[in-house]
Amino acid sequence: MTTECLLVRNARAFPFAACPVVEMPAFRETVIENVRLGARLNALFAMFQPENDTLLLLAVMAHDADGSLRILATRPGERYQALTPACSQAHWFEREIFETWGILPESHPWLKPIRFLPSRAQDVPSAEIGRANFFRMDGEEIHEVAVGPVHAGVIEPGHFRFQCHGETVYHLEISLGYQHRGIERALAAGITPRTLHYAETAAGDTTISHTTTCCQAWETLAGTQVSARAEAIRAIAAELERIANHIGDLGALAGDVGFLPTQNYCGRIRGDVLNCTALICGNRFGRGLLTPGGVQWDLDTALAQNLRARLAEIEADAVSAIELMFNTSSVLARLEGTGVLTAATARDIGLVGVAARACGLSRDIRRDFPYGIYRFHHLPVCTWSTGDCFARAYVRWLETRQSFRFIREQLDALPEGPISSSVGPLRPDSMAISLTEGWRGEICHVTRTDANANLTVPKIVDPSFHNWFGLACALRNQAISDFPLCNKSFNLSYCGHDL
Amino acid sequence: MRLLPAFLHVLLALALAPLLPGVINRTKAWFGGRHGRPLFQLYYDLAKLARKSAVYSRTTTWVFRAGPVIAFASSALTVLLLPFAGQTAPAGFPGDFLLLIYLFALGRFFTMAAALDTGSAFEGMGASREATFSALAEPAFFLGLAALAFHARSISLGLIYERMSWSTSTVAPLMLVAAAFFVILLIENSRIPFDDPETHLELTMIHEVMVLDRSGPDFLLIQYGAALKLWVMAALFTGILAPAPFASYGENLALALGAQGLAAVLIGIVESTMARLRLARIPQMLTGSIILSLLSLLFLLRPFA
Prior knowledge:
The structure holds 2 protein chains of 2 kinds.
Chain A: E1 6-8, E2 14-15, E3 21-22, H1 24-36, E4 40-49, E5 54-63, E6 68-74, E7 79-81, H2 91-101, E8 104-106, E9 142-147, E10 159-165, E11 168-175, H3 183-188, H4 195-201, H5 207-222, H6 228-256, H7 260-281, E12 290-291, E13 294-295, H8 301-326, H9 329-335, H10 343-349, H11 353-357, H12 365-368, H13 389-412, E14 430-437, E15 442-449, E16 455-461, H14 463-474, E17 478-479, H15 483-490, H16 494-498
Parallel strand pairs in A: 3-6, 7-8
Antiparallel strand pairs in A: 1-6, 2-14, 4-5, 5-6, 9-10, 10-11, 11-17, 12-13, 14-15, 15-16
Helix pairs in contact in A: 4-5, 5-6, 6-7, 6-13, 6-15, 7-8, 8-13, 13-15
Chain B: H1 3-16, H2 19-31, H3 41-51, H4 62-80, H5 96-117, H6 121-152, H7 157-162, H8 171-188, H9 216-241, H10 249-273, H11 282-300
Helix pairs in contact in B: 2-10, 3-9, 4-5, 4-9, 5-6, 6-8, 6-11, 8-9, 8-11, 9-10
């Protein structure tokens, strides 16, 4: 009993009324069928409609092969038959919906809070953070190890529970929510002068990509044509962000296996890349660079020349530091075969970004749902098939090389024109799905306007939201001493998840 | 006449031991293109810790408090058994190499017991790892010293190291013992590739995780004790490679001290050029060092000719 979905493209506005609202059983079967046919669930979320005081459940599904997005809505009522048993990708989303709105997905196998939020539904008591019904194993030689939320390093807070037998991890449960700031709720309430700052800080290390996603949705709903020059500058900044984070991660991976030379040099090189972003806009993480309609800072010839020279030097340094790591057998011995995820598991749980590409899945929004300058200038998708820590490290390095090349090409042929266009009035009663490929993976912002053309962002999905469960799966039957390495190889965002 | 240098060596060990980690760190910094922390950082740290007071969890017992004291005392006692620069140790006696091994074992036992006493999952895991790996490191150490004892035809450490000299027939087995001792030196002092003294990741630690709950003077004892242990093990290692060849004591002492420094540099080089082993691989490496010691023992078990 499947039904037709609305078919849209990335960053194209459509009238909200065009989105089909079907009965729950039809919705459930259609989503399951689409996922069975290879669709990814970009977002599954409930949206409050003040017009008629109801909750609408929306599913956004991506078919990578033809670059189409399919949208379907339903009215879930107070409880519905959970999708998760037939569609693992819905697992985290349904827990989120249950926690946020109190809608019960019946027969969900693992119904626990993911962020320990105060519920938006009136009558649902909020859970105390970290107090969940954790999965437990029993047995003579089973022991439980709890790590966090306060960690020894300067990292974000998160709680990890390991069920171990000796040094072997049988199960890892990840409990987050400590970084919750209410960004999603603030964005869903409508735009204010702070909206862009919320996007910039949704995940601090992904400032450019989240802000691009947000601006792109805004421009789509306003029908603004962004100049090619602005799009090129956005892409340069996004690739700089990718390079900085990838090199930082590779250095951190080297540090985790105790390989000092690469760790030391990558730490410095990452700083040099961030300084390039600062040369463009004055902020190392690219805050204040983007604005709806374009960018705030131009890249003149002198600056382009300066960046080119710096990047040539940085790339040479990065090559020598990172090739050293990949040529050292003791490093490879640690990375290879550690934290393996099969392509089938990755597909089932809907991994995105580097983690998915390291399992051999060819997924990249820049190619599958091209946006901005990526519509005209393509980047090859880098994949590796082993799904282990080595693959996640190596894909990062391959992508870094591609990004260097891409930036060089953009700097060589920066399009002429203004850097920003004026953003006109928004189309009323419309919706837009905006996808971009951040350095971790796909970022999805769902935006809509009401009858008075007030813009709201009812849902943002950070790649970490899809991938945290992948980390838990990768740890099965691994040595507990390899957890930090696996964790670093995913390097997911806590605040991007908790929002 | 022999007593004076022996006590001088004890004083030198007590004074210079914290310098070795400094040398290691500077070597690593040089390889990493950094300035690195000051050479005397451990002295500053120890002075800082001495000024602090210790914090104890209510769940711990006297075992927890006894741990660092006994661990330090046993490390300090090994210094009294250590021959240096071709001279006998102040407290040397026939069979003292057994005491040396078991003093290390005693310190380790109480460190592990104190770690278990906290009831922390991390510390328990560290204690379990330490027990597993030391059970393999000990036979290698024991067999290595036994090989050296056969070489010197003596069971006192002083004579073992005094009679250290290479000849064409003994150089190969002595090198094997030196290699085995270097492996033991690395694991016993929680160095890369076995353990990472720099890491903050509790789940990967072996030794460091057992002292997570330490503070103030207790931590001072642990750090200072670890430095002494490094000094002693390094001296046992360099004693093989740099036996006292000179007639004058001064030259021998300078050579021995230089060799200690070079051993620290060597550790630094290993740490800079190698990643850590996977935990599951460590027993294989240690079994390898047992085999090295055993082989050299077999080579040195030659008939009296």
